[in-house]
Amino acid sequence: MEIQMEIQAEIQMEIQADIQMEIQAKSQAEIRAEFQAEIQMEIQMDIQAEIWAEIQMEIQIEILAKDPGRDPGPF
Fold first, then answer.
1. Which domain of life is it from (predicted)?
2. Which residues lie closer than 8 Å to 57 by C-beta, 6 or more apart?
3. 3-class DSSP assignment, residue 22
4. Is the pTM of this model over 0.70?
5. Consecutive 10-residue runs of the chain (75 residues): their mean pLDDT?
6. What 3-state DSSP class applies to 23?
7. Using CA atoms, how far apart are residues 59 and 72, in angstroms rounded to an integer?
8. What is the rounded distance in angstroms from the CA atom of residue 44 to the CA atom of residue 24?
9. 16-39 core/surface letters (b: 16 or more CB in 10 A; e: else)
10. Measuring CA to CA, how many Å separate 15 from each of 7, 24, 31, 56?
């Protein structure tokens, strides 16, 4: 009976350790995915802002080229 309890306790500890490792692995994967999504969104927003600024500057340059006396506004 004592041997059976020892074996049961050992198996239970192994199972708990396996479950804990799975939980940690999933949590780390979810955290990585979340950070990747946030970083991608930030990069995309930065790129969009940069592109929009370039477009604005090109528009102002074209306005100035067509009407040199006009104030093109801030760059």
1. Eukaryota
2. 75
3. helix
4. no
5. 88 92 85 91 95 92 81 62
6. helix
7. 9
8. 30
9. eeeeeeeeeeeeeeeeeeeeeeee
10. 12, 14, 24, 61
